[in-house]
Design a protein that fits this description.
Blueprint (H helix, E strand, L loop, with lengths): L2 E7 L3 E3 L9 H11 L3 E5 H7 L7 E5 L11 E3 L2 H7 L7 E4 L1 H7 L5 E7 L7 E2 L8 E9 L9 E8 L1
């Protein structure tokens, strides 16, 4: 099972200037819970926005830069190489960014989204989810609160 995990806004916004646009602690907590002890696959720019490997996960970075290094991480040059490096994990997670999501949506089995019920100015966007290919399997809606500034939903899809 290959799972794409992302937080997106109503306009499919992912981020701007290689950074998240919002701070949603509930999303970060859920992300940690579901990815813990798994392989996480991401592009170099996404890794650089995180700044370091995430604890208790195997970090795989996709980059075209043959000289890129990151301590404690596996470096590969394609999504196929990343999936091969993660083949011992029965559920690796793809963390983005936009270019990686565009490639991964063709081969993923599941999409786990945090959907922020707000529109943001962005320069990176999640691909459109084609409902003829993807079936929504669960949706949990949450209202904004003192810690989470925006209404949001956790939404899961599986490939039909």
């Amino acid at each position: 099972m290959i799972t794409i995990i992302a937080a997106i806004a109503e306009n499919n916004a992912l981020g701007k200037n290689n950074q998240l646009i919002w701070h949603l602690p509930a999303d970060l907590k859920r992300f940690k819970q579901v990815t813990l002890n798994h392989h996480i696959i991401m592009g170099r720019k996404t890794f650089e926005s995180l700044g370091k490997p995430l604890p208790n996960r195997t970090t795989i970075i996709i980059t075209r830069n043959k000289h890129f290094t990151a301590e404690g991480c596996i470096i590969v040059n394609s999504l196929n190489e990343a999936l091969k490096a993660a083949e011992i994990d029965d559920n690796p997670f793809i963390l983005g960014g936009a270019e990686i999501y565009n490639q991964a949506i063709e081969i993923a089995d599941k999409i786990d989204l945090t959907f922020i019920h707000h529109t943001f100015d962005a320069d990176a966007f999640f691909p459109k989810i084609d409902t003829s290919i993807w079936k929504e399997t669960s949706r949990q809606y949450f209202k904004a609160d003192e810690k989470n500034k925006y209404d949001y939903s956790f939404v899961s899809y599986i490939k039909k």
